[in-house]
Design goal:
Bound molecules: S-adenosylmethionine
Shape: globular
Helix content: 25-40%
Number of domains: 2
Structural class: alpha/beta
Low-confidence stretches: 1-17, 398-415
Order of helices and strands: EHEHEHHHHHHHEEHHHHEEEHEEEE
CATH architecture of the largest domain: 3-Layer(aba) Sandwich
Strand content: 5-15%
Number of helices: 14
Distance between the termini: 24 Å
Largest sheet: 8 strands, mixed
């Protein structure tokens, strides 16, 4: 049964195809909803999808024949958790190692009693800490980003985690470790980019690393217990392939996926959300090489000369921006180049009558809105899909800059985004 939206305003935006509607729907605001249920509480991350969005898409579009959900930009795995809760096998991919660690850990079966034992052992150890010389982690400017007391405590926790044999249990503890190290570092909390807190605040900066870690681990244990009670199927795969390049056939076969639920980045990392920078310190503590090069590998990270995307509205906008800002126009084109390729590849692995739900943002550049929702629809339509509907939702509390400074002058801001577009497409051969 399809639920009717509480209030909506139908805007037909294509005379040629009136099948699909586009409307603003306040039902999708989910004001006051608990976005941290189950394992959704595990770790903060930029531009997370709220679980209620994935849940509502599943409640409207999942049918009993569906078996496989795929998310080509799975981030911390919001749609994988929701898919698992309704009994789907969930497959995700993300180029960010931190995102993969978090999403895997959210949907992997562990023996929670073993985790509780580990927590107890850890707490005992903290009471009679031996003086031990640890190997310092290989992190650029370690002393610039952390004070010595926090470094020592983090090394103590990491040493404990490294001694765990079972990889899934180890990962379960690495998630709160990563969140803790970010919180005790000298980066400004509330910023996704790597900025250091002001000098005058550093002296008084003395967070309790051990306490934060144990609290977060306890919170995750509780979230996991709730998830385990409700979870119908622990069956997932989390990969690190780039769907703009290819979706390896040996991992996901053509015409095999029933439903795709995803929230792609809004633009290239350099000028929108820097997932790589947000994750740098965690990835480095986790021993990932080249962590600082990650943003360049994400969508739009490699710029090339502007060509046509084929979607005239967008091509005209890119040309218009290119007149005054050629570099910015190149970055925009490069993002849509990768995004288009990814949709083409995703289209192939979806079954006939399968659903793709893309939650996208239309960001503004030079005060012009980039119509990512319509571009998404256009590319899918050229790859055997029909438009079902586009739901426009308000983003009431997303941790996402609503204002940007187009001239980089303080106070000179324009609104970048207050809505999110849920574009629903159906494959119809
Ligand atoms: C908006 S976030 C997804 C958030 C996710 N829905 C969640 O709830 O946590 C977009 C993700 O796309 C990933 N990404 C960007 N370019 C990618 C690419 N070419 N291939 C795979 N993942 C990519 C980023 O690392 C980031 O985690």
């Amino acid at each position: 049964m399809i639920k009717m939206p509480s209030s909506y305003d139908i805007i037909y935006f294509s005379e040629a195809n009136k099948m699909g509607k586009k409307y603003v729907d306040n039902y999708w605001d989910f004001i006051g909803a608990d976005t941290k249920e189950y394992t959704h509480s595990f770790h903060i991350y930029p531009a997370m999808m709220i679980p209620q969005v994935a849940r509502e898409i599943l409640s409207r579009y999942k049918n009993n024949d569906m078996k496989i959900l795929f998310d080509p930009y799975c981030g911390t795995g919001t749609s994988l958790v929701e898919g698992s809760l309704v009994g789907l096998k969930c497959i995700g991919t993300d180029l960010n190692p931190l995102a993969r660690l978090i999403s895997k850990s959210k949907v992997t079966k562990v023996n929670i009693n073993n985790i509780i034992k580990l927590l107890n052992n850890f707490e005992k150890l903290t009471k009679n800490k031996n003086i031990k010389v640890y190997q310092r982690p290989n992190i650029n400017n370690l002393d610039f980003w952390f004070k010595e007391k926090q470094i020592v405590d983090l090394m103590f926790i990491k040493d404990f985690i490294d001694s765990i044999d079972n990889q899934d249990e180890k990962d379960f503890l690495l998630v709160p470790f990563s969140e803790t190290l970010r919180e005790v570092s000298l980066t400004r909390n509330g910023e996704f980019k790597l900025y250091r807190i002001p000098k005058e605040k550093i002296n008084n900066w003395n967070p309790n690393t051990i306490k934060l870690f144990t609290e977060k681990l306890m919170r995750n244990i509780n979230g996991y217990k709730e998830f385990e009670k409700k979870n119908k199927l622990f069956n997932h795969e989390v990969y690190n392939f780039n769907s703009s390049e290819e979706i390896p056939n040996e991992l996901i076969q053509e015409n095999s996926v029933d439903i795709v639920i995803t929230s792609p980045p809004y633009g290239d990392s350099g000028t929108t959300v820097a997932y790589g920078q947000f994750s740098t310190l965690s990835n480095e503590w986790l021993g990932i090489e080249d962590a600082r090069k990650l943003d360049k590998k994400l969508m739009g990270g490699k710029t090339t000369d502007i060509q046509e995307t084929g979607f005239k509205v967008l091509d005209d906008i890119i040309q218009q921006i290119a007149v005054e800002k050629p570099k910015r126009a190149k970055e925009i084109w490069s993002f849509y180049r990768d995004y288009k390729k990814s949709i083409e590849n995703v289209s192939k692995i979806v079954k006939n009558h399968g659903i793709c739900a893309y939650v996208v943002g239309n960001r503004r550049v030079s005060n012009i809105e980039l119509p990512t929702d319509e571009f998404t629809r256009y590319v899918f339509e050229n790859n055997g899909f029909k438009h079902v509907e586009t739901i426009i939702r308000n983003i009431p509390n997303k941790r996402q800059p609503k204002k940007t400074s187009p001239t980089n002058k303080t106070g000179n801001t324009v609104s970048t985004m207050t809505n999110e577009y849920i574009v629903i497409m159906k494959k119809e051969d």
